[in-house]
Design a protein that fits this description.
- The protein is of the alpha+beta class.
- It is built from five helices and nine strands, in the order H-E-E-E-E-E-E-E-E-H-H-H-E-H.
- Strand 3 and strand 4 form a beta hairpin.
- The radius of gyration is 21 Å and the shape is globular.
- The two termini are about 40 Å apart.
Length: about 200
């Protein structure tokens, strides 16, 4: 997606190398809702029936809890601590209080913008890195016309849906391999009579 974004919105390949007059410089808040995560009600180290919801930290899932504070499609990045890692979620999760949560109708476009931000320049923390919600909202972006944004979302969204489906299939295949391989190695399963 990065190459597509660069082609369309940095090199202006769609418009013969010229930025259209209808495109304008805006703040990120023009196309997003940005909020802080919250402290989870409980925290467990591992998934269980009581704690099935992942707790999203600044850089990765950092535990599990009993309920979700998001069930929508969101982008998450670090507010405190680690900066610059952008995580995608489209399933129930709990975003922790060291994160910024970004929602947008232009999800794929916003994701690409977040990948390009100089987070170190936004850091306000002296002892621990900190980015404020207000600073994130004020990030300057080049905003294309609605028609171009919609085309990008459709194209990029289709490609990312396929990528996510492939990723889930890989997880299933790896699990199947990890289940079957030990049985093959131990002789518990015999495949010598299978005709390939």
């Amino acid at each position: 997606m990065s190459a597509l974004y660069e082609s369309w919105f940095e090199n202006f390949d769609l418009t013969n190398g010229v930025c259209p007059e209808s495109w304008s410089n805006q703040e990120l808040s023009t196309i997003t809702e940005i909020s802080n995560g919250k402290r989870p009600p409980i925290k467990a180290e591992s998934f269980s029936k009581e704690t099935p919801i992942p707790i999203v930290g600044a850089a990765s899932v950092m535990g599990f809890t009993s309920e979700a504070n998001h069930t929508d499609k969101i982008l998450v990045t670090g507010r405190v601590g680690t900066h610059g890692i952008v995580q995608r979620f489209n399933a129930p999760c709990w975003t922790s209080d060291n994160t910024l949560v970004i929602k947008s109708s232009y999800y794929e476009f916003t994701n690409q913008i977040l990948q390009r931000i100089d987070y170190s320049a936004m850091n306000r923390g002296s002892t621990q890195p900190l980015i404020t919600q207000g600073d994130m909202k004020k990030v300057n972006i080049l905003l294309p016309d609605v028609e171009t944004l919609a085309k990008f979302e459709t194209f990029a969204g289709t490609m990312m849906n396929q990528w996510e489906a492939n990723k889930q299939e890989n997880v299933k295949l790896a699990s199947l391999r990890d289940t079957i391989l030990p049985k093959l190695m131990s002789g518990e399963l015999d495949v010598s009579d299978i005709d390939l």
